[in-house]
Structure formats: C-alpha cells, structure tokens
Design goal:
Elements (H helix, E strand, L loop, with lengths): L16 H15 L2 E13 L2 E7 L6 E6 L1 H4 L11 E11 L4 E11 L2 H17 L18 E5 L4 H13 L5 E5 L7 H13 L6 E5 L14 H8 L5 E4 L9 H4 L2 E2 L3 H8 L3 H34 L2 H4 L2 H43 L1 H6 L4 E3 L17 E6 L2 E6 L4
Parallel strand pairs: 3-5, 6-7, 6-8, 8-9, 9-10
Antiparallel strand pairs: 1-2, 1-4, 2-3, 4-5, 11-12, 12-13
Helix pairs in contact: 4-8, 5-6
Length: 405
C-alpha cells in the first residue's frame, strides 16, 4: 500500500476504494484522542456496551459514539440521552464499511450537570461522615436573647427576617453581620461573619439568609469549607437560602432548614400574640381545674361535717363505752365460770386424795408400826425383844417396846 501522503491517483491510475479507506484510517489514527463537548441524542445499551449518537450544541453536526463496557462502568451514574457531556473520544474509521465512529474513552457531565454531580458526590461524602445526622442537630432556645443574622447588606432577605421577627416579638434583638452571598468572596466572608458572631456570648442562634437565586449563585452554600465550618458550630444555625429546587448542602448540615428568610423568622422567634393566647388558655384551664378541685373539697368537707360523729361527738364515746361495759361483764362471767370449774375440780382431787391417803386407813382403826429408824414393821421377823417401836394411830403416835412374848 502507498503511504497516505502520496496522492498519485489519476484517471489512468485511480486508487481502489480499499486504498482510499485505508489512507483515511491512517490520517484519522494520527489524530489520537481529543476532548469534545456535545449533547447526547441517542443512548442505547446492548450486551453491556453503549451505542449512541451525539451532536454539537452550537451546530448541526452529529457523530456516532461507542462506549465499551469497561468504559461504561466508570461513567457518572444516570448519564444518558439529553445530557450535555465532555467526551474524550478516539476517532475510529471502519475501513471495510467506510464509516466513522468515535470510541469514548472517558466522559464527564458538562456545565451544570458536572456541578450537580460534584455536589451530589460531596453530599454523599458528608453524609457518610455523619454530618447530616439528626442527633448532631442543636435546638435553639424558645426565646433567643439575641439572634445573629448573616446576609447581604440592604438585601430583601435582611428586611424580611427583621420585619417578620419584630412583628412576632417586638422586643427581639438582632446582631447583623453583612457578607457576600454569591461569588468568590461569599465563602470567606460568611465564615468570617460566623467567627465574629460565635465569639460573642450573647448570641443564641445564627441565621444565614439569602433570598433565593439561580443554581450558580447558590454554589457558595454548597462549598465544603463553609459546610465543615458550620458543622463545627457551637450554637444552632438556621439555613434560610430560600430555594426549594436544587437545595444547597447548607440546608442539610444546618440545625434548622427554613424555606425562606420569612420562614426562618417564624421558626426562631415565637409569636407574642400566639403565646399570649396560649398563656390565657392555660390560665383558663388552670382556673377551671382549680375551681373544680376547690368545689370538690368543699363538698367533701360539707359531707364530712354532716356525719353523725361530728353532729354529736359523744355518740362515738357512748358507743365504745357500751362495748367496754359488755366486754367487762363478759370477762366477769367468764372468770366466775372458770373459778367455779376450778373449785369443782379441786374438790374432786381432794376427795380422791383422801380416799387414797393412809390417814383414811388409820381412821378406820388400823395402825402403822415403825421401828426406831422410822422403817415400816410389817412382820414379827422385823423386830426382837426389847426393840423400841412407834405405833401411829388415827390421832397420834404411841411409843412401845417389844417383849418376849
């Protein structure tokens, strides 16, 4: 094959289509890879690969693209048709088909899409560190002694916060620190204002306010440096950026998110009229409850005074006196009965003892003979002639001596 730079074709010696296609391939191969900005118009997945088409955002130019599976796995999540992207492509000429295609080597979201992707990546990072966790949130006091306000000078946001706060509680006190709320100066000035307000001992809560704006103007409120500074706060911080769609990350990391500056004033400052109504309602409920208790105790006291015991106090004494007399009489009766029973039993025991007593035998004419030692003599063999004896009869003792007979 001739070199791509040698154009030696002529009517007499024309090139073949293969030579032309191969020459184009060589030229295109020399270009290498390039970054281009384009909009995706077609995006189809087949076998894990992507076959699509992109167009120039400013001109009527379109080219085919191919994203191989290995590259597709590294693309931003959710990228697809309609997205504006930055593509690193390597042009590829198919010799046999005579068709130009672009192999995509890398892809990034362009413009706002790229910024949104970065913000979402930062959101995931900070959430992973637990900086959005509810348990980290601080609760402002019911009625702050002084409120810090960070906002642009003479801004509508400043006027809204101050006016609505004063309408709710006329004695509310503010310390305003002005700072840029968009552009390159916004982040350092807001951080400086935070440092100034937090250095004071009389600030109970800080509001960072801005009256909404487009996405790019709100970018400072998704700056990582500012967010980490807010995460280190020692007093509650309220985010009042005033933008519902594409909300900045400050809304997630602040202790309270207010939808607007006006909403921030309502969340931080209690409404004096509402609080007075609540106090009046509480006092009314308290008085009703107290009156009910007093009425109940009065009725109990009346019923207590009407009891017979209080109407005639001696009734209780008389009642117990009668009981005592009955118990005394019962005790006497029981005692007499027990004494009589004991006497009867004693008489019985005395009769039994008499019946069994030796004296009873003596009374019938019998005698008891004892030797000198007091031993009982119940046989002639127990004594000898001349032994002294003692004979006990019914009414006394008789001394005697044993004779020979």
């Amino acid at each position: 094959m001739s070199t791509a730079g040698a154009n030696d074709s002529s009517p007499e010696t024309p090139w073949s289509l293969q030579r032309l296609s191969e020459s184009l391939s060589v030229y295109i191969e020399r270009l290498g890879s390039v970054w281009v900005e384009a909009e995706i118009t077609q995006w189809g997945v087949s076998g894990g690969h992507v076959y699509g088409r992109v167009k120039d955002p400013e001109a009527d130019v379109t080219v085919d693209i191919t994203v191989w599976r290995s590259t597709r796995e590294k693309l931003p999540d959710g990228v697809g048709q309609g997205d504006r992207v930055l593509l690193k492509v390597k042009p590829n000429w198919y010799v046999r088909g005579g068709r130009l295609s672009m192999n995509v080597l890398d892809m990034r979201l362009a413009g706002l899409g790229e910024l949104l992707a970065k913000i979402e990546a930062l959101r995931a990072k900070l959430a992973g560190e637990g900086l959005f966790a509810e348990e980290r949130k601080l609760t402002p006091p019911f009625l702050p002694a002084r409120i810090g306000l960070i906002t642009a000078k003479d801004s509508d946001a400043e006027k809204d916060v101050l006016r609505n706060a004063e309408l709710r509680w006329p004695e509310v006190d503010f310390e305003v620190a002005h700072a840029s709320v968009q552009g390159d100066k916004a982040v350092p000035e807001i951080i400086q204002a935070l440092d100034t307000l937090e250095s004071r001992d009389d600030i109970d809560v800080i509001i960072i306010a801005r009256g909404g704006g487009d996405f790019q103007n709100l970018l400072p409120f998704s700056d990582e440096t500012l967010l980490r500074r807010v995460a280190e706060r020692r007093i509650p911080i309220v985010s009042a950026i005033g933008h519902e769609a594409d909300k900045p990350l400050l809304d997630d990391i602040a202790d309270i998110r207010a939808s607007t500056p006006t909403d921030a004033a309502k969340r931080i400052v209690p409404d004096v009229a509402e609080e007075r109504n609540r106090i009046a309602e509480a006092r009314s409920r308290l008085m009703t409850r107290l009156q009910s208790l007093v009425d109940g105790e009065t009725e109990r006291l009346r019923l207590f005074r009407e009891r017979p015991v209080l109407a005639s106090p001696l009734t209780v004494v008389d009642t117990y006196a009668e009981d005592i007399l009955r118990l005394v009489q019962r005790g006497v009766d029981v005692t007499d009965t027990l004494v009589e029973m004991a006497r009867t039993r004693l008489d019985g025991l005395r009769a039994s003892m008499r019946a069994l007593s030796p004296q009873s035998t003596l009374d019938r004419g019998y005698a008891i003979v004892q030797d000198k030692d007091g031993g009982l003599v119940d046989s002639t063999d127990d004594v000898s002639a001349g032994d002294p004896l003692r004979i006990r009869v019914r009414d006394g003792d008789i001394g005697a001596v044993v004779d020979d007979s």
